[in-house]
Amino acid sequence: MFTSTFKMNSKTALIHFSVWIIFVLYFAISYFLLWWELKPIKISFLEPLISALTMALCCYLVFSSMKFYNPSKKQYFKIIAFCFTLTVMSLGLSIFCIYQFFDGPSLVHYYQKLPYKFIINFLVLSCMMIINIFWNVQEEALENDRRKLESERLVRDAELYNLRQQLQPHFLFNSLNSIIALIGVKPDLAKKMTFQLSDFLRGTMRKDDKQLIPLADEIKHLELYLEIEKVRFGHRLKTNFEYKEEVLQAKVPSMIIQPIMENAIKHGLYNIIGDVDINTLIVLENNMLTIEISNPYDTDQFYNKKGTGFGLSSIQRRLFLIYSRTDLLQIRKTENQFTAIIKIPQHD
């Protein structure tokens, strides 16, 4: 609202400034040419003043009439006709006023110069009309660009929200199944897991309206998720984090690490007997936050050969929507180790 008002006020001020510049220049040039032609006769300033005032009035009419009108290519003859009409109007008003203040010889002299005045007035008004048309075209183009960017932003935000929502059901169903399995055997663990799941989902809903959050908040939310998974898998799941305190203030997309951790747990624990270590390394160098999550995996398992899966592909899509880059998610595989690498640009 304030921006549009400011633009309107600045445009109005520029219109007034332009019109009065034309008035001053028209008066000065008309008076000088009249003095040059009739010297040493004393020249009255009324005739140039009247001509300049009528031109200023016609310029205001141009701005007022073109304020909400932008002609198409086939309507430019109307602009020429409009300029012609305003030119005749300006000269007619000047002649009418000169009749009130000047004698016959002065009128004769004015009529002698009438063709030149017609050409000058027509050219000035045509220039004002063309400038106003280009002004309107530019404003319309800027407004169209603004609406396009706003529409693209809304579509991007809707897709980001949809991607975040798709990440939750899979984890939620697994957690509920684990709670059901624990109710009869270990009711205390089932109760604990229920409270942890509640805290995790509450934190997820709070972050739905935040695109970028501090890494410290993301890690706290991730720890809630890992506590739930540790209840499910017991002592088999071990997680290690390695980072410096300075990286905790870095900004990351909300819930960007949890799908990778879920993918690491799925491929690391479901097909391997014994304890499994999932290592997370976080470093910040040259305004680029790098997050590496490594887990063991069984190369003989069929679904490990099927690709990155929905979790990683959704992360890659989110990173592209936020940063417009396709190189921020990388996958590295060794003989029995799978590593997902996320790079988050840190803009000042």
From TrEMBL:
Endoplasmic reticulum as UniProt keyword: no
Recorded superkingdom: Bacteria
TM region(s), chain numbering: 12-33, 45-64, 76-102, 114-137
GO molecular function: kinase activity
Keywords: Kinase, Membrane, Transferase, Transmembrane, Transmembrane helix
Annotated coiled-coil segments of the chain: none
Domain Signal transduction histidine kinase internal region: 158-237
Xref: InterPro entries: Bact_2-comp_sensor_kinase (IPR050640), HATPase_C_sf (IPR036890), Sig_transdc_His_kin_internal (IPR010559)
Protein name, UniProt field: Histidine kinase
Organism: Sphingobacterium bovistauri
